[in-house]
Amino acid sequence: MEVTVLLFASYADALGCSSTTVTLPPGATAGDALSAIRRMPGAERLPVAPMLAVNEEYARPGHALSSGDRLAVIPPVAGG
Questions:
Q1: Residues 3, 63: contact at Cβ < 8 Å?
Q2: Does some domain include residue 79?
């Protein structure tokens, strides 16, 4: 199945794109998609614990994905 991954801030900077498509086996999770992203060139610079959202709703890494889903990978935010 194919899932569109939207990358923000440091993730987009590190990977050189704001979105990509990953191909995953049926039954894959948001965490599986994140693992696929971490194997891309440039991924060694990625923050460790991003927030995830599937189809514009926050999700945990164990969230099951369906073909055509949109997974947003949002790096940690700090501020003061």
A1: no
A2: no
Q: Which structural domain, as residue segments, surrounds residue 21?
A: 2-74
**CB-based burial label for 73 (10 Å; 0-12, 13-18, 19+):** buried
Whether this model's pTM surpasses 0.85 = yes
CATH number at residue 27: 3.10.20.30
**Residue for token digits 């194997």?**
39
Tens of pLDDT, residues 13-58? 888 999 999 999 999 999 999 999 988 888 877 767 789 999 999 9
Q: Coil, strand or helix: which one is 2?
A: strand
How many structural domains compose the chain?
1
* Helix extents (H) in 10-78: 10-15, 30-38
